[in-house]
Amino acid sequence: MDSRRIKLLQTLVDSFGPSGFEREATAIVAKKMRPIADEISIDKLGSVQFIKKGSAERPRILFAGHVDEVGFIVSGITKEGFLKVNPLGGWWSQVVLGQKVIIRTRKNDRHFGVFGAKPPHVLSPEERKKVVELKDMFIDVGASSEDDIKEMGIQIGDPIVPDSSFQLIRNGKLAAAKAFDDRLGAFIAMEIVYKLKEEKISHPNTVVGAATVQEEVGLRGARTTAHIIEPDLGFALEVDLAGDMPGIKPEEAAAKLGKGPAISTMDRSMIPNQPLLNFVMKTAKKEKIPYQLSQMYGGGTDAGVIHIDRAGCPSLVIGVPTRHIHSHVGILNLDDIEKTIDLLVAVVKGLDSKTVKSFTDL
Predict the structure, then answer these.
(1) Which CATH number covers residue 268?
(2) pLDDT (tens digit, 9 = 90+) per residue, 256-272?
(3) In Å, what is the CA distance from 144 to each residue of 75, 150, 253?
(4) 287 part of the active site
(5) 302-337 pLDDT, tens per residue?
(6) Of the four, 9, 62, 94, 310, which is 20 to 30 A from 81 by CA?
(7) Which of 215, 216, 238, 338 is an active site residue?
(8) Is residue 170 part of a domain?
């Protein structure tokens, strides 16, 4: 990836934006896309849509990537000055304990914190064998009383994100950061529109990129976006579970880093339109772009609501294999991102009205 793309991806993933608090991230998307897109819209839930017109108004092709990241929200303050929290999105408590976080106040001040619990020295042998649940943890911000917390300006309802910055590893081939799930999807949607414009690529349709909000708490932004855009086809751009780690069986997560984009064959929220799935696979083979087939039986994406919008919308999920999602640090291969963008631009070029109609003809 060139320096422009890397800088944009870094800016996006380093921004602050758990579910319901995405404005910093969506503002970046809107600012970057205004000079590029033909139209920009922002719905009342906060999702951003950016349009690139082709030679025809229809079909409308929606590329949605959600910008909310998993995080936490302050739910209580102890008399000793420690914070209790609720999750924003899905967390496995074992990946949380001992991790650093950032708490943002209503005045936009930011405070360091770390997740704590009873130290092992005071645990019984039976307690040490148990996973510590989130309800039994707290965040230590260095305070000693409720008054200290008030002085810091921290209140119930303040949002929290992992304290984890973007960095390149393995000689720049891989990247590590928080929030790849799913600022990466929004980034890919932005880059599709950017490439269509900068390279003056003709396409027989209208492309709509979207940075959706509140996916991690119920696919909410995709619902309002689909209602506004009325797409003829929908793509959820996501991370995919990388299974190339110890303890994961191929049938549990088939995708691997560096082997190209992962095309989902089903997840908990959607079974894709099969002719559309076949079209994307054929396009990848024609363009000699490597791809992987995957499933994520235990999760869902924005496509879960896009595909049932109005009378239905043929949809598909394309993901970039990523290790350690829903944790403080994910790891991915930058070449997989490039191949995903190349594949989807090639797909866009072939989506004329006749082809899109064929996906639902009997």
Answers:
(1) 3.40.630.10
(2) 999 999 999 999 999 99
(3) 18, 11, 45
(4) no
(5) 999 999 999 999 999 999 999 999 999 999 999 999
(6) 94
(7) 215
(8) no
